[in-house]
DNA sequence: ATCCCGAGGG
DNA sequence: CCCTCTGGAT
């Protein structure tokens, strides 16, 4: 891409980030227990393709029954499944919770590792969850958590090209586009934007604060 | 019907 | 690259 075009694109990207900041000031993780890295990891793991509300509803009972990684490591999977039954994919997630706890105990000395590669060895923890936990629990901003919202919005705003057809390629493109200081806020603000305004199949373009910066406004 | 702060396996 | 896993809210 010619340098002038690249510069224009970056300026538009920065403008978008600033608007996001104005519209969603001090946005933070909608999941509870961000003060405890282990609990946050489990909460984010549980939240895959379910609502934050659903997760926040079941985690109090989960932590009451299993207050520590050690307690969860010793848990009966069926009992865990019973507690989280009301959220989606609960069968696999219950098994992953317990496996996570066991691995944290056996391999990581009882603590969530502060390392992008190691943390993804936990079952059910992929790159998106890893980014969220590193960012939220440890203040380590190593990448951008690309979920379905970030993916959709990046493409709709044409901040990434059509070849960025996977979450990883989209993340790489956004990392090149945005200076480091913008990475953290994207994780929280774009999700809110995606849920409230740029909704997947019926975006509210009429009331969107980015419509003048969006090549796809109205489509 | 559609969506929800995805990951793992074939 | 595709598929599957899941229940609740709107």
UniProtKB/TrEMBL annotation:
Biological process per Gene Ontology, one example term: base-excision repair, AP site formation
Catalytic activity: 2'-deoxyribonucleotide-(2'-deoxyribose 5'-phosphate)-2'-deoxyribonucleotide-DNA = a 3'-end 2'-deoxyribonucleotide-(2,3-dehydro-2,3-deoxyribose 5'-phosphate)-DNA + a 5'-end 5'-phospho-2'-deoxyribonucleoside-DNA + H(+)
EC assignment: 4.2.99.18
InterPro entries according to UniProt: DNA_glycosylase, Endonuclease-III-like_CS2, Endonuclease3_FeS-loop_motif, Endouclease-III_FeS-bd_BS, HhH-GPD_domain, HhH_base_excis_C, HhH_motif, Nth
HhH-GPD domain residues: 46-196
GO molecular function, one term: DNA binding
Cofactor comment: Binds 1 [4Fe-4S] cluster.
Database matches in Pfam families: EndIII_4Fe-2S, HHH, HhH-GPD
Similarity comment text for this entry: Belongs to the Nth/MutY family.
PANTHER family cross-referenced by the UniProt entry: A/G-SPECIFIC ADENINE GLYCOSYLASE/ENDONUCLEASE III, ENDONUCLEASE III
Task of the protein: DNA repair enzyme that has both DNA N-glycosylase activity and AP-lyase activity. The DNA N-glycosylase activity releases various damaged pyrimidines from DNA by cleaving the N-glycosidic bond, leaving an AP (apurinic/apyrimidinic) site. The AP-lyase activity cleaves the phosphodiester bond 3' to the AP site by a beta-elimination, leaving a 3'-terminal unsaturated sugar and a product with a terminal 5'-phosphate.
Protein name: Endonuclease III
Organism: Senegalimassilia anaerobia
Lineage of source species: Bacteria, Bacillati, Actinomycetota, Coriobacteriia, Coriobacteriales
